Structure formats: structure tokens, C-alpha cells
Please model this.
Amino acid sequence: MSVKKYIIIALLAVVTAGVGGCNKDDNSLPVNNAPIPRILAFVPENAGPGDPLTIKGMNFSPDPEKNIIKFNQTVVVAESVSDTAILVIVPDLAVKSAGVTVRSNGKISNKKNLSLVRIKKFRDDFDRADIDLVDQSVVPNPIGDDWEIVAGKFALEDNRLATHVGGLESYMLYRAPEVDMKAGNDNYFKLGGDIMVSGGGSFGGIIFNAQEDNKRFYLLRTAGSLVQMLKTGANGLGDWAAVMMSENFAGLSDDKKYHVEIISSAVGKFTIKITDPDSNGTIMDRSFTDSDPYVGGVPGLYYFGLANPTNIYFDNFSLELQ
Model:
């Protein structure tokens, strides 16, 4: 090989090495080793425009300027930040839900949907002074401003709603402002309460979707191990438009407290769950469908004291509406 060719090959090697070195230096970028942020929960679970909202999570930047919070495509300024929580004010958006993300230190989190429709919550734990048995003739109702005694007598004892009257089929309704038990079209309700019924065949129960006439409603009631799901007609109690269930369940007995939860997110469809509050064990979990449903209305509490005297107690009444 000639000297000229050696020189050319040597020059090409030098040039190639130089180009390779330049490319390596030019393409080297700083590595972002920051952990990926993650949204775990919202407190509260849903909120309306103008409400404070805490975004619970992990790997957020404690530097406010290194967090970009978005509700859909709307950027929201943080009120306060830490590595596990960011406080913001919910923006006014013309939507019912928004996907929330957080970009921290250049890394973007998962997207978690937030409902922008406020949940209305109503509760009565009956934790107030004892009241002797009263009926609808006592005005105002000393049991509670929002309670309407339709029939029978009720008392407050040991921070519980109680009755001891035998031979009566009676009930009261919770007619608080804004209570309207709608379901479907982004509406739902969740009703709950504790019930304990003494023996002698007495019934205790919970009412829902009670209409303005105080006669048409759904009634879940128990006596011993028996559970009945009933629908009243235009004439009220005893006028059973439908017997949707009548069965015995292991785990239910006289003088035993149990918890009822009724949930509906679609018109004419609801799920009823009965649990043992001591063990959290499920006693009954059933879904029901009514082709001609009662819509809206209010909840209530029911008893039928077949024994005389009887002991029926209600506690921890709760209602959630959206």
C-alpha cells in the first residue's frame, strides 16, 4: 500500500473519532431521577367550584413552583404543598367531573377523576337528651325538627331512637329540606341505619322513597331472622303493591343490632345490604328492580310492635345524596 493511502486512512480515522466524540458530548442530557408523582385520594371525595380540596398522594414537590396541577386542561395554583398533599381551590368548570393530574419536578402523575357535583349528607345519631314517648300531636316534634311522626309513638333513650308500644304499626319520616331520593342521570342515594328489634314477632325497618302522600314507599323490615322487602300501594301499610322478598337469613335474631345500607344509582334499581356491625360480616346482599318505581321522596323508620311491651331501637341514621 502506498504512503499516500496510509495517510488518507489515518486522516479518516482521526475525523471519525472526532465526530463520534462530538456526537456523544452533544447528545448527553441531564437525567431526571425524580420519582413519579401519584394521586391516591381526594379529601373530600368530591367538591364543587370554590371548595377547598386536598389532593393526597406521594412524590409531590414541596416547592410550589415545581408542581403544575390541572383540572382537565385548566391549571390551578396550589394554596399549599408538601410531598404527600396539595391543597387547591376547585375551579369553576362547566362540567360535572374533571380529570386531575399533578406534574411534579417534570414528571406527570396518574389522572384521577373528581366529581364536581356536591354530595349532600344528612345524619342523625340521636345523641341528645332523653324524650318520653310522643306522637304526632306534640308540636314541634321534640324528637327532631326534621322528623315527621306519621303514626305511633317514639322516644329518645340512651342516645337512640326507641319505642316500647305494642300492637301498633307506626313510622316516622325524615322530611329535611333538600332531601329528595333521586337516582339516575348522575343522581344517587345511599341510606343507612342501625336497627335492633326485640322478640315476640315485632318488626323494625327502614323506609325509602316515601312519597308526599306518606303512604307510598318501599319498606325493608325484619322480625327475628325474617327479612321482607315490601312496596306499599295507594292505601299505605297493609296495601302491599309488591312483596319483593320474604326470606329467613342466618345471622339475624331477636335483640341483635344490625346495620342496613340501601344504595341506588339507577331509577327502579337498588341494592340492600345487611351487616353485623360487631363483626362487619355480611348477612344479606341483594339487588332489586321495580319496573314501576317510586322516584324521589324521603326516608324513614318503621316499627310494628306485636309484643307488648316491645323494645325497638334505631341509631346512626345517615343519608347521602347526589
